[in-house]
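Protocol step 4 of 6: structure prediction from sequence.
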Amino acid sequence: MTKFESKVKKSAYPAETIYNFLGDFDHFGDLIPKDKISNWKSEGDSCRFTIDPVGEVGLRIIEKEENKTIKFTAEGKTPFNFFLWIQLKEVAEDDTRVKLTIKADMNPMIKMVASKPINKFLEVLSDAIANHQYDK
């Protein structure tokens, strides 16, 4: 298993607010970078999208720990098997730390091609989660 981690980011919202938002893929459309991800489709606890140069990816929520963790796994035909964790740690009422981790089962060739886009994806998504205006 190969592990990728985002930097820890700071959000000015309570963990509960972020957790409730992220627990439903229908909200993710606001977070994903339109220039990096295409063909977005969501159905509450699962979604599918295309990310270049990786290809089509499906995600499904498989585990939640209220206000702390949401765990996703690959769903359907994906280039490799992986798990994605979103970790939330509330340090004060309006200060929640956000960290994303991907553990992926990939061969050396896929790892070579996909590592840079996966790291970029984690940073872009963690920035989007941390900087999102949840009270809109």
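Step 5 (inspection) to follow. The domain at 2-131 is CATH 3.30.530.20 (Alpha-D-Glucose-1,6-Bisphosphate; Chain A, domain 4).
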